């Protein structure tokens, strides 16, 4: 998920950058060298944060919170400080003290991810309300959202916004456009019927093509299953399905049916090969670790724990080098996949994902469990000293009594 979204943003940035390129560069002369922005001390990861700073920070904080860690205050403050006055978030703002303006490229994905993280951590109600207000203000007529305000609705953006609305305590189905369309209407509109060709049956498209046609996309399907269920990036396993996933034929499926059909498509894709694939133009198919992790979360949420066993085992065995190279968002995705399936993220194929994630950013504060243990130990120590103190006071009192009685008995 994070790799694909970053690539999409990069592609859009390249197009925009081409249109704005200075004449000196356009005519072939060499521009002055540029350097990547310095990584802020509160940010997770050391890679250039220009295109994914808020996204990876949000996932990292969510993952730490999910496993009982208390993220470093400066890491949380960094994320909260990225918010614009209108409530929106950009992918990254190097100077968060400068006001956002028309040139600030805010987007729905960064905003929705930040809402989910800050809502989970608590103490940021005013900020999350403003962010949700901005998201609602840029909802499309079909009920969905595109990556940028006013952009055509897509399954991934709509789904992460649904997660934000739910995380902020709202009912996503109640958030409707002026035409009365909800996010669920937009997602159902991107779902493919059960009689679609081949492996497309039951899946979700990212967006319609220029002719309005739909083609299933595994990344969009994994996101849309969660969105159609009204769930966010952090979820637990749903009730196991008695007969596994089947594709329910319906002229216009309900959101629940669309989610089930999407899970059916993911289960089919993972049946013979325990991982999803991606390919760049002209290159061979290769394993897509991030999308596989997202598919595990989606299947678990829909009740397909049995279908997650093979891809989860494959991730435990093979995802280490990918996560190391990709950084905090990758570790967070694996932690969320482990959480959704009830797997211990501290023993994920012999790897402590929580420790690995923590090593990419500011040191977390004491975990909730550690704090409870420390408090218990403190209380235990206090009780011991209280008993000793009472004993000493009692002993002194008895001593005075004995001494007083002895004096009275003396002639």
What can you tell me about this protein's structure?
The protein has 411 residues and is mainly alpha-helical. It contains 16 helices and 4 strands. The strands form 2 sheets. A two-stranded antiparallel ribbon has the order 1-2. Helix 5 packs antiparallel against helix 6 and helix 11 packs parallel to helix 14. The chain is globular. The C terminus is likely disordered.
Strand content: under 5%
Order of helices and strands: HHHHEEHHHHHHEEHHHHHH
Query: What are the segments in which pLDDT stays under 50 over at least 5 consecutive residues?
Result: 6-35, 384-411
Main sheet properties: 2 strands, antiparallel
Return the structural class: mainly alpha
> What is the overall silhouette?
globular
* Measured distance between first and last alpha carbons: 95 Å
Strand order, largest beta sheet: 1-2
Mean pLDDT across all amino acids: 85
Q: Specify the helix fraction band.
A: 40-55%
- Tally of extended strands? 4
Our count of helices gives: 16
What is the alpha-carbon Rg in Å? 27 Å
Question: What features would you highlight for this structure?
Answer:
single chain, 411 residues, mainly alpha, two-stranded antiparallel sheet, two-stranded antiparallel ribbon, 16 helices, 53% helix
Explain briefly what this protein structure is:
By secondary structure, the chain is mainly α.
What is the strand and helix layout of this fold?
Blueprint: H1 2-20, H2 23-26, H3 53-66, H4 73-81, E1 89-90, E2 106-107, H5 108-121, H6 125-137, H7 155-167, H8 183-189, H9 218-228, H10 255-272, E3 277-278, E4 286-287, H11 289-301, H12 305-318, H13 320-326, H14 328-341, H15 353-358, H16 368-409
């Amino acid at each position: 998920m994070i790799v694909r979204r970053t690539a999409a943003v990069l592609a859009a940035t390249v197009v925009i950058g081409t249109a704005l390129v200075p004449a000196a560069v356009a005519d072939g002369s060499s521009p002055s060298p540029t350097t990547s922005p310095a990584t802020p001390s509160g940010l997770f990861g050391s890679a250039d944060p220009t295109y994914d700073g808020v996204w990876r920070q949000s996932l990292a904080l969510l993952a730490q919170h999910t496993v009982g860690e208390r993220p470093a205050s400066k890491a949380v403050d960094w994320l909260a400080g990225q918010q614009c006055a209108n409530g929106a978030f950009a992918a990254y703002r190097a100077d968060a003290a400068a006001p956002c303006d028309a040139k600030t490229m805010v987007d729905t994905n960064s905003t929705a991810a930040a809402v989910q993280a800050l809502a989970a951590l608590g103490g940021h109600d005013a900020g999350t309300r403003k962010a949700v207000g901005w998201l609602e203000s840029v909802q499309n007529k079909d009920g969905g959202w595109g990556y940028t305000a006013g952009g055509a609705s897509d399954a991934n953006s709509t789904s992460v916004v649904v997660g934000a609305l739910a995380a902020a305590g709202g009912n996503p189905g109640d958030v409707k456009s002026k035409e009365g369309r909800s996010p669920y209407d937009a997602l159902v509109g991107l779902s493919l019927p059960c009689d679609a060709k081949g492996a497309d049956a039951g899946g979700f498209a990212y967006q319609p093509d220029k002719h309005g046609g739909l083609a299933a996309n595994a990344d969009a399907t994994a996101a849309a299953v969660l969105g159609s269920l009204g769930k966010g990036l952090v979820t637990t396993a749903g009730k196991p399905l008695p007969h596994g996933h089947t594709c329910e034929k319906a002229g216009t499926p309900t959101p629940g049916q669309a989610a089930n059909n999407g899970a059916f498509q993911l289960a089919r894709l993972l049946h013979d090969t325990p991982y999803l694939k991606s390919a760049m133009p002209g290159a061979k198919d290769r394993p897509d670790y991030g999308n596989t992790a997202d598919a595990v979360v989606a299947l678990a949420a829909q009740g397909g724990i049995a279908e997650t066993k093979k891809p989860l085992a494959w991730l435990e065995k093979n995802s280490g080098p990918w996560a190391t190279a990709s950084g905090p968002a990758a570790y967070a995705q694996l932690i969320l996949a482990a959480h959704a399936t009830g797997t211990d993220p501290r023993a994920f194929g012999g790897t402590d994902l929580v420790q690995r994630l923590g090593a990419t950013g500011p040191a977390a504060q004491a975990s909730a469990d550690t704090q409870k243990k420390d408090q218990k130990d403190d209380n235990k120590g206090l009780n011991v000293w209280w008993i000793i103190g009472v004993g000493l006071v009692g002993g002194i009192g008895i001593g005075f009594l004995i001494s007083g009685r002895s004096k009275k008995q003396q002639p």
